């Protein structure tokens, strides 16, 4: 198979972790006789430096040409005080929007080898296996009007949280389909005791549920969900929510996995005529500029994102499973980065990448 992939290394630790993810992809291609055609593009802070904007038009064009996009991370502290529209993060929001990847799948699972890396008691996390489905193209991240206006005590900042029925339906269907192929339980998260968007969300979730009689739907308020994720993570199978709730709760999910460096993600849009999803794949962790360039970053979130790409954008299930199994083998070997509390001296980013390749 020809795998035409755009790589957007981005900022901070992004280039280091994507280098290892690409290495794993090439190992898979060697073993199963696929051809990887890589293109590289600029996104985020590096794009602002080199091209003056967070998402240059050529990056956007490449993303539409390629079969799938692998992203590292964006964000640099030098932009901390810059207006939102000129920040590196705007590049990330731009690429998500232009690709139309409206469902962000963030799987969270516990690994035997990492039970002690989680601050939670072993019996709470052991066996936890859930997927957070975060709506990614709408809500308060994109809603207008937005801005800061006026001056003095009356100066005001404002954002708009808005969802249409169609936007809610499509992400709910994605989540129901996932649940149907798992343990058949879907939790829809909202704040319907306060927000109108959430009231519509809950109503539409109930309607879509009629198409999936085999899946159990429950509704949970987002504040309670934040607590339940820590109290009883094993109760969850697929959990679906709007954009900002998903941003917040998926970082909380990292506590279950043991490190945010472990979490992969797949952002999916509609299916192409071939049946494959339009997909953007990125680790959940950020650019971590404090450890950039030191070989300390955990590449397993990025490598897991490659596995997700093989699965969703190319339908290569055997290859994807081999990558997941190799990740687990490396975790069991204890040769892991410092965030995972290794027994001996921590492995470097590149050593972990090499170990995953060897296990494949
Ligand atoms: C994430 C990140 C991004 C988001 C930032 C970097 C814009 O936190 O992917 O979770 O808020 O979506
Ligand atoms: Mg986040």
Please describe what this structure looks like.
The protein has helices spanning 14-32, 45-51, 57-65, 89-99, 122-125, 165-180, 196-209, 222-231, 243-257, 300-312, 317-333, 349-359, and strands spanning 2-10, 35-40, 68-73, 103-109, 129-135, 147-149, 156-158, 185-190, 216-221, 238-241, 266-271, 277-281. The chain is of the alpha/beta class and 360 residues long. The protein folds into 2 domains: 1-107 and 258-360, 3-Layer(aba) Sandwich (Isopropylmalate Dehydrogenase); 119-132 and 162-255, Rossmann fold, CATH 3.40.50.2300. The chain has a 10-stranded mixed β-sheet with strand order 2-1-3-12-11-4-5-10-8-9, with helices on both faces. Strand 1 (2-10), helix 1 and strand 2 (35-40) form a beta-alpha-beta unit. Helix 1 (14-32) runs parallel beside helix 12 (349-359) and helix 8 packs parallel to helix 9 (243-257). The longest helix is centred in the first third of the chain and has 19 residues, at 14-32. The chain is globular, with a radius of gyration of 20 Å. It starts with a strand and ends with a helix. The mean pLDDT is 97. Residues 247, 251 line the site of magnesium ion.
């Amino acid at each position: 198979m020809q795998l035409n992939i755009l790589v957007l290394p981005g900022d901070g630790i992004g280039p280091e972790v994507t280098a290892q993810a690409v290495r794993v992809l090439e190992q898979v291609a060697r073993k199963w006789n696929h051809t990887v055609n890589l293109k590289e593009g600029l996104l985020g802070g590096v794009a602002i430096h080199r091209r003056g904007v967070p998402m240059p038009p050529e990056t956007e064009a490449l993303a539409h040409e390629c079969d799938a996009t692998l992203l590292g991370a964006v964000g640099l502290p030098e932009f901390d005080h810059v207006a939102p529209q000129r920040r590196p993060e705007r590049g990330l929001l731009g690429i998500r929007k232009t690709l139309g990847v409206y469902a962000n799948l963030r799987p969270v699972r516990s690994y035997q080898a990492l039970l002690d890396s989680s601050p939670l008691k072993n019996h709470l996390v052991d066996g936890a296996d859930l997927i957070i489905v975060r709506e990614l193209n709408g809500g308060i991240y994109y809603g207008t009007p937005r801005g800061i206006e006026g001056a003095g005590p009356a100066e005001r900042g404002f954002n708009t949280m808005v969802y249409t029925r169609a936007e809610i339906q499509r992400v709910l269907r994605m989540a129901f389909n996932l649940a149907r192929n798992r343990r058949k339980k879907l939790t829809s998260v909202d704040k319907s005791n306060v927000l109108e968007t959430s009231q519509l969300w809950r109503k539409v979730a109930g309607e879509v549920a009629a198409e999936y009689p085999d899946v159990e739907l429950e509704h949970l308020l987002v504040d309670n969900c934040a607590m339940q994720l820590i109290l009883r993570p094993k109760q969850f199978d697929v959990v679906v929510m709007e954009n900002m709730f998903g941003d917040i709760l998926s970082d909380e999910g990292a506590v279950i996995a043991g490190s945010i460096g472990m979490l992969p993600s797949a952002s999916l849009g509609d299916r192409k005529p071939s049946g494959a999803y339009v997909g953007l794949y990125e680790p959940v962790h950020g650019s971590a500029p404090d450890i950039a360039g030191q070989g300390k970053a955990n590449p397993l979130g990025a490598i897991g994102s490659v596995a997700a790409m093989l699965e969703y954008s190319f339908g290569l299930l055997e290859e994807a499973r081999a990558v997941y199994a190799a990740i687990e083998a490396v975790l069991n070997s204890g040769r892991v980065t410092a965030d995972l509390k290794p027994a001996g001296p921590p492995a470097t980013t590149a050593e972990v990448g090499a170990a995953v390749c060897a296990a494949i």
